[in-house]
Amino acid sequence: MRFxxxxxxxxxxxxxxxxxxxxxxxxxxxxxxxxxxxxxxxADGLILIHRSQIADARMQMFNADGSPGEMCGNGIRCVxxxxxxxxxxxxxxxxIETGRGPLELELTLKHAVVDRVRVNMGRPVYAADAIPTLxxxxxxxxxxxxxxxxxxxxxxxxxxxxxxxxxTEELTDELVRVLGPxxxxxxxxxxxxxxxxxxxxxxxxxQLRVWERGAGETQACGTAASAALVTxxxxxxxxxxxxxxxxxxxxxxxxxxxxxxxxxxxxVEVFTGNWPADGxx
Length: 281
Known about the structure:
The chain has 2 domains: 2-122 and 266-274, Diaminopimelate Epimerase, Chain A, domain 1; 143-259, Diaminopimelate Epimerase, Chain A, domain 1 (Roll), CATH 3.10.310. It is 17% helix and 43% strand. The protein contains 4 helices and 18 strands. β15 (241-246) and β16 form a beta hairpin. The longest helix is centred in the first third of the chain and has 13 residues, at 73-85. The protein starts with a strand and ends in a 7-residue tail after the last strand.
């Protein structure tokens, strides 16, 4: 099986072109094996690229633990790069079908290949049962939540996948790596949740670390950055146009008057390879 490893701001996935070759028979199992950073290729998950009846292509994603994901803002940018750089879609604008519907992308080229991509992430979802969460509010904003021995003020929205944002003065390993997994699997989130820890430096600049559902801490997360922007605006912490600084790099976000959030960031190809049929390297 031919694969390509790509990343957006360090958020790395293994991509498989299921148009030019058959899709894997067990994508969830493949995601677990190929994502392993010791015995596999190493990635935050697996993304399959399929034909689509309503868009230029369809992306299907699986987290590193094999669980399905609805949407990935960094992953979709890399899908767009793959499609353009390999001549499948030779237009600077394209539409890709995701778990939250078709999304529009605008490409920026450098030396005839895709360098950066602007994604219309769509509108945030506020309804608690659609996020989903059992916390009060639509959306929940700075709602007290007990996590172990601590009480945190949390904000929640969805961008096709559920997000919980904690605004904090300090970004510590204890918050991200200890409380992150506890929040991810908290009973108040029936489908688990992605957890973003955000420190506002100025109303136009925010630092973000993310504990992703099914993947652990990642270098970047586009939907988490979008959730941080929206909840930051709704709570008066942020302007509608911000730069989100993540461990893997910076993402530019804008929440415009139409209520759509636009995310711009890099898309980078790392290498290609062949994964053996028996899954053994």
